[in-house]
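Notes, p. 3: input format for complexes.
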Amino acid sequence: MSIDRIRISLDDAHELAERACLSAGFSPDHAAAIARTVTAAERDEAVSHGLFRIPFYVRALREAGVSPDAEPEFSQTAPAVLRADCGYAFSPLALERGTPRLAERARDTGIAALSVVNAYNVAALWPEVERLATDGLVAMAYTASLSYVAPAGGREPLYGTNPMAFAWPREGRPPLVFDQASSASARGEIQVRMRDGDTIPDGWAIDSDGQPTTDPAAALAGAQLPFGGHKGSSIALMIELLAGALLGDLFSFEATEVDRAGTGAPRGGELIIAMAPERFVPGGDRAGDRDDSGPGDRAAHLTHAERLFERVLAQEGTRLPADRRYAARKRSEREGVRIPRTFYEELRSLAR
Ligand code: NDP
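Output follows (352 residues plus NDP):
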């Protein structure tokens, strides 16, 4: 279906998002952090986590009991474990402030974790891992969401769409990053298709009778499917345990129980792990050249990784994850972004 779209600059996108958040009652720091997060996603054509999310943030603030202004509180629970208690606010501010602290800890201890708890998270995970890898670290992130996905063989939603992200630093170019739901698609991808009058691919969801469907509305009313059957199902289960039981926060089904207004804003935790490559091989400059002369040569790890990337790219039809986003980023920085005109009007009215 062809829809009327309007082109706006990234500055305008940021301003619209920030004003909508301020009008809704978010504190200036939260409004700015949310606006930076959604503008970055819109810029990278990660549309389901871009401006599209602003009405969710606004509605969740009004109806889900999200804090508009809680400042993240940081503490250290072990030498290599930091905790950010978000006080039931959205997570972007804690993530922006927490990742530099995590990077510092990881450089010191070799590996460190940031446990982000009592947060609402409706964002993609690549911003935090990309930021850490840009800072020279290997990073991973995991979060649960709301009960949307049937476990392999089941028909009822239980797991969240539970994404995980991974980033690897590269010398002189942006990091390698992947960020993927453990379901066949993110929920936002189905919602965007419903908004735009499109169907969804086979294998994404079943309807409420347990039958395969390509109708986004039937999929949202039924259950999403894990990617790769039992394999994606086990990854979703692992993420429930890491972001829920390990951090002392909610499972997706518990987050659904506390979202009484059905806003779709998931309350819970996010686990981020950062590793300093130079801390993994003592001295020397390659795996195998071992001595005890202190941290290893970071550049050697990175050069070694490039050999793998070259082999991947030598095969026709391949690309590295994040390359699509980086290409979109360059394009959007030059040309701005295109959003449906009706949606632009909705954002303008939220921003008043
Ligand atoms: P996709 O399936 O679109 O992409 C997953 C990853 O695979 C991306 O890193 C993508 O890179 C990469 N990729 C895609 N095609 C190729 C290819 N041909 N070769 C190599 N790499 C490729 O993402 P999902 O739909 O699974 O998830 C979308 C987003 O939703 C994620 O950012 C996730 O964090 C978010 N999400 C958030 C949730 C929350 O509760 N906060 C819940 C669930 C999902 P590229 O970006 O360059 O295309």
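The chain has two domains: 5-183+226-275+337-351, 283-324.
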